[in-house]
Write a structure and sequence with these properties.
- The N and C termini lie far apart (39 Å).
- Helix 1 packs across helix 7, helix 5 crosses helix 8 and helix 7 packs antiparallel against helix 8.
- It contains 8 helices and 8 strands.
- Strands 1, 2, 3, 4, 5, 6, 7 and 8 form an 8-stranded mixed sheet that branches.
- By secondary structure, it is of the alpha/beta class.
- Helix 4 links the parallel strand 4 and strand 5.
- Helices cover 38% and strands 20% of the residues.
- It is globular and about 55 Å long.
- It has a single domain, classed as 3-Layer(aba) Sandwich (Rossmann fold).
- Bound molecules: S-adenosylmethionine.
- The site of S-adenosylmethionine has 21 residues, from helix 1 and strand 2.
- S-adenosylmethionine (SAM) binds next to helix 1 and strand 2.
């Protein structure tokens, strides 16, 4: 695959990134209450074929396969070879025959017939869809969804809001670099500008009946998610560092000093932090609509 066709902000073949995504997926699914919390973790009627776009190491796909053993097929597609290999190995050892993983680029036409899927999930596409790619990708997902089928998008505007000054600085560099690199829709780089856009993007791509459901993950000291998120930041910031330097947001010295401080401040007993996520659900209109 040609390099310019991979627009992921981070290195998709990096084992640390894969480990980060594995932990993050477990944390989020537990914290928000399951794979489809907005639907009471029930599948809509006549749901047999599901797709997860940018599935990473496959946590959501495998959890869905486990939760709904009668499903015909739940497909995960991701550009990363190591993530797809890992996901396939897990499907094999867990004997999840309906979980299928495909290495592919969702910026290209999807290799599925019209109307093939009943429900398509995608989480955190902000990290690889450049601004102009959103509507075409959502249209292509619409093509492979059956009339009356659904899409479920989960996005964020930052990676947390916290009481640590040093951590806030790291999170601010992250928002700025996302904006500078052409991701998200923030006018000023203060956040990702993603969640306010979901309704419009879905509407522009021809989806109907859009519903929004917020979630929050508590990452304060003493919570279940605190250590997982600490590890996530530890890995994510180091991977983002070359991008901060390239875009002149900080210097090597300032970054290293702030990085150590952020990790230490997050360990303090009075550290408080929340991470807000938004899920948008929408339906593909029936032909007569
Ligand atoms: C932020 S991760 C999210 C993974 C997963 N959806 C989750 O929430 O845990 C983004 C994923 O998209 C994948 N990705 C990046 N560009 C892609 C592309 N053009 N086509 C398919 N997958 C892509 C990356 O390899 C990575 O696994």
């Amino acid at each position: 695959m040609e390099q310019q066709e991979n627009t992921y902000a981070l290195d998709a073949e990096n084992a640390s990134e894969m480990a980060r995504l594995i932990m993050q997926d477990r944390m989020i699914t537990q914290a928000i209450g399951g794979v489809l919390p907005e639907l009471g973790n029930q599948l809509p009627p006549d749901t047999h074929h599901l797709l997860d776009v940018g599935c990473g190491p496959g946590g959501w796909v495998l959890d869905v396969a486990f939760a709904f053993p009668d499903l015909e097929e739940v497909v995960g597609i991701d550009i990363s070879e190591i993530m797809i290999n890992y996901a396939r190995a897990r499907a094999l050892t867990e004997e999840q025959d309906c979980a299928i993983f495909i290495q592919g680029n969702v910026l290209r036409p999807l290799d599925f017939p019209d109307g093939y899927f009943d429900l398509v999930n995608a989480r955190f596409m902000v990290g690889f869809l450049l601004r102009d790619a959103w509507v075409p990708v959502l249209r292509e997902i619409r093509r492979v969804t059956r009339p009356g089928g659904r899409i479920r998008l989960t996005e964020v505007d930052n990676m947390g809001v916290t009481t640590s000054p040093a951590l806030q600085q790291q999170l601010s560099w992250m928002c700025q670099v996302i904006q500078k690199m052409g991701y998200g829709f923030s006018p000023d780089g203060r956040d990702f500008g993603m969640t306010p856009m979901l309704r419009k993007l879905l509407t522009d791509a021809g989806w109907h009946n859009i519903q929004l459901a917020p979630h929050v993950v508590d990452i304060s000291t003493g919570t279940d998610c605190h250590f997982t998120q600490w590890q996530d930041y530890m890995v994510a910031f180091q991977m983002l560092k070359p991008l901060y330097l390239k875009h002149h947001l900080t210097t090597e010295e300032e970054f290293e000093h702030n990085y150590q401080l952020a990790l230490a401040q997050m360990q303090q007993l009075d550290f408080q932090g929340l991470w807000y996520l938004l899920t948008a659900f929408a339906t593909k209109p029936d032909e007569q609509e």
